Amino acid sequence: MKAFVVDKYKKKGALRLASLPEPELQDNDVLVRIKATAVNQLDSKVRDGEFKLILPYRPPFVLGHDLAGTVVKVGSRVRRFKVGDEVYARPRDHRVGTFAEFIAINEADAALKPSNLSMSEAASVPLVGLTAWQALVEVGKIKPGQKVFIQAGSGGVGTFAIQLAKHLGAAVATTTSAENAELARSLGADVVIDYKTQDFEKILSGYDLVLNSQDPKTLEKSLGVLEPGGRLISISGPPDPAFARELGLNLFLKLVLWLLSRGVRRKAKRLGVAYSFLFMRAEGRQLGEIARLIEQGVIRPVVDKVFPFEKTEDALAYVETGRAKGKVVIAVAN
């Protein structure tokens, strides 16, 4: 099969199109012929080695965290899927590699593709959908009437999270550029702030939850818009001690993450709010819940561009510009 391989950690020129053997199937795996995949900021970070401490992929490895495709083979213990099923998934860490024609994934990581989406649309959903679900439903436990601030409302996570938060009954504020303000409003945002000309810290107050996806300065400012008892969930770091415990990291790495997050945790405590770092995990059953919302018309994916498979590096470069509206997809096969 053809796949884009990272030969060594570096920013540019890291991907190489290679011919690899078909993945081996474990008893609980399904082999999926990938029809489409999507590009995330996470792909750039993994390629650059930013997560080497917690995700020590050993080059050469195949990049990619989203997929939609067709099951072509099942392991002996698989019960949820059969050959021919159309599925979508975010493979679990240490088993990623969707910039390829085939992948073997644990059946627990997959769900049936939303029936009203094309393969390209479905491939845009798993990583951002699970991130939004785990932040707003699982950790944030959003209730009707609460106020939620979602940063970067025209980005991949933002476009999905706005819709999910509105479905949960929250009032939603977001930041984006003036040219993308109408998109954010069409997704349900009640307050849209132009990050280029306005300071959200001066506009927002009394919020129950902030979903942070930006730089450390924005994270610090975001703590100030929360009401006492509110929570900031960050998907861009810094990782906290709870995350270190969850991963079962060694003492040295636990200390490193404790030091990295000490400043923001101190400020949060001073303000009487909570800080959490979220590193999304694979979860097929949650994707099943998300598929139902999509089929009901509650949430619609936002796809900016679709690149052909041979232009995977171009797709990654486009995402790195930060100008994409929603998700960038790669069509792997017809």
Automatic annotation (TrEMBL):
Residues 13-330 form the Enoyl reductase (ER) domain. InterPro entries: ADH-like_N, ER, GroES-like_sf, NAD(P)-bd_dom_sf, YIM1/Zinc_Alcohol_DH_Fams. CDD domains: MDR_like_2. SUPFAM superfamilies: GroES-like (SSF50129), NAD(P)-binding Rossmann-fold domains (SSF51735). Pfam families: ADH_N (PF08240), ADH_zinc_N_2 (PF13602). It comes from the Bacteria. One of its GO terms (molecular function) is oxidoreductase activity. SMART domains: PKS_ER. This is NADP-dependent oxidoreductase. The lineage of its organism: Bacteria, Pseudomonadati, Pseudomonadota, Alphaproteobacteria, Hyphomicrobiales.
